[in-house]
Amino acid sequence: MKDAAPQTVYLEDYTPFGFTVEKVDLTFRLAPSATRVRSKIRFAPKPDAPGRRFFLHGEDLKPISTRIDGTEITPRHVEGGIELNAPDTPFTFEAEVEIDPAANTALEGLYMSGGMYCTQCEAEGFRKITWYPDRPDVMAPFSVRIEGDMPVMLSNGNPGASGPGFAEWHDPWPKPAYLFALVAGDLRNHPDSFTTMSGKTVDLNIWVRPGDEGKCAFGMEALKKSMAWDEKVYGREYDLDVFNIVAVDDFNMGAMENKGLNIFNSSCVLASPETSTDANFERIEAIIAHEYFHNWTGNRITCRDWFQLCLKEGLTVFRDAEFTADMRSAPVKRIEDVIALRARQFREDNGPLAHPVRPQSFVEINNFYTATVYEKGAELIGMLKTLVGDDAYARALDLYFTRHDGDAATIEDWLKVFEDATGRDLTQFKRWYDEAGTPRLSWSEAFEDGTYTLTFRQHTPPTPGQPDKAPRVIPIAVGLLNPNGDEVQPTTVLEMTEPEQSFTFDGLSAKPVPSILRDFSAPVILETRTDTATRAFLLAHDTDPFNRWQAGRDLALDCLLAMIRDGAAPDTAYLDALHTLIRDDTQDPAFRALALGLPSQDELAQLLHDHGHTPDPQAIWEALETLKQARAEAFHDTATRLHAQYQVEAPYAPDAAQSAARSLANAAMAMLTQLDGGALAQKQFDSADNMTRQLAALSALISAGRGDEATRRFYDQWKHDRLVIDKWFSVQIANATPDTAADTAKALTRHPDFTIRNPNRFRATLGALTMNPAGFHHASGKGYALLADHLIALDPLNPQTTARMCTAFETWRRYDSDRQALIEAELHRILATPGLSGDTTEMITRILG
Ligand code: BES
Ligand code: ZN
Predict the structure, then answer these.
(1) pTM to 2 decimals?
(2) CA-proximal residue: ligand 1, atom 4 (nearest)
């Protein structure tokens, strides 16, 4: 908790630290409530440094002693740290402080989780461990000695001496403090090794609590695949003798890339067929890759300051997406990512929390680990790659790694390597980093004498603090199809730079059908809506899998909008086109499963709002239910056949092919449950031998109102497995009806297994409610009140997770005045809480606008 008035930090105020850190030695004497941290830090004043203010960050530290060059001194305690008079020549700073890991419920700094010690330092957690210039541009080699009675004691880098009661570690690579990590506990390992491209053997370990050893094999394979992929695709080799991964149960985020010692939320690394779904496996593989890839994009080259966060996160998300595309199916990954981008980033970009990929200012940096920085940040890299081409992208990246290895770099540095590698001027492209908001793209067409002209217009709506937007560079990937369905113009990238711009295609014998924004080549909203016949045509014939999927998605959206706005019946054109696709066994099952997916309630609310309507969450939910029922009736025979045909007989494997089959079979099962009252789902639940089938059956049963017995049995079967019990909490809330969701969530907060101290459990309960929009936005306001009550309760314990979950309210201005008034009252109630954290205060204030 921050007590003092929160300070706004500005990018333009950046000044380098006046000292270099040549070496850091840390000694930890572990004790749950009184851990002693001794530090010995060698500082050298920079000759050209502006001013000599010697300030070290520190928070919640109990000072024991402080010395400079061996002489005890008394530091001045100032806001957020200490100030000292520093010598003009190199000197050694030594300090001893005491900290209280057992009382650390914020899970930032050194804390305890299930009897083990662990750390989370990004972004500004190291200052809760000892006095230090806790800023990413201060990089130094660290040596660590851990003293304690834990059987396993780990830190960054390579192992040094160890014996009863102590372990030493040395990390030769200079790093910022946010990459520091320490873990100590009674842990079991799953060992393996990897031989790098230059023939070096690296020891690999996944460390887990006793009992979880059987859930490590998949993560280990993912790690080895990631290491091989980064060598093959980016030429990046691992640079230490060991790579350790640790699973912890209490963790605010998914995982963290600490040098040589990645720490994972156990939900993001532990996997087994019985306890993890196909989606869990895919996510675990991606997140292991992501954190591993940070070793180069984040660790060897880090960020100068936290405004540059997208430099490491956007790039690393882009790299992990490329990896998943290579390991699994590129079109499926792209479609999943665009669904997530629209659900999270477009939502953010079109509301009160909109901010540029590189913000100009922030109050609490933890609040800026956002969909915009991550997902839009990754889209910007994708656009750059599309604009310069694959070869130039590879050259630019090679230049980035050679030029900036060991640096704390900026977005300017990043763009400069592209300019230098390609000779391009990226001034206009840089607007993507500096301006918030999702551009709207519209188009019109003309055909005359064999020449086809596409005219595009772009505009970006105002965002908080940025009313006027200049035109962006937009790479628009386009293909043209003949009316008979043949492609006459393969994918070509049009480079739009003006507010309005035309492109022509010559020598065509007939007016073509355009396929626009193939592979979603830019993070924009395509405003021009074509007719149903064109969409059905593209769904059947487009060669670009993304746009084929988009055509189906647009048919579903149009159908649902007509149902919600005009009370129309489900559109038979949509039903017919979808039916043709899903019964065609020559089509990829993964694609058919994706095509069966429906737009989310939140996406529909956003679209209605964009079109000038006030979304009614209940009406959206009802339209989706009606459409599901209509689809089930129309597709009954096909669904019966698909469910039988796509049962996987082979032993479970979490690969793309099997998970596509299961996903299609489960979609069919969900449809049949609309008709048979749950008989098939019950059968599947009774016989399921993997979590993908079991959880799909349980969801279907709960949705059908027939889930009570299965819910009880699921609990009895899995009560010993906390990650599965998280699923048990969320599945009941996610599938509850609008009238009951908040009551179900409330009842579950009184379950003996509920605790607000574990972020996963909190998210599985309150987070699940926010992902049931009709339930969360229930007209009574009971959903809002329940969430607000729990945010108020969690804030004093864990501000970071509280602040993050405030985003559930970010869309409040979309809704009717009654709901707005209810939400506004809850926001003010939270804000009025005495001692509210800076994190949560910032979020609520920004959401209120
Ligand atoms: N560096 C982050 C973890 C992090 C986030 C630390 C926020 C401190 C504050 C890590 O690399 C990361 O991005 N993790 C993501 C998952 C990833 C696959 C996008 C996460 O934890 O959600
Ligand atoms: Zn990351």
Answers:
(1) 0.98
(2) 256
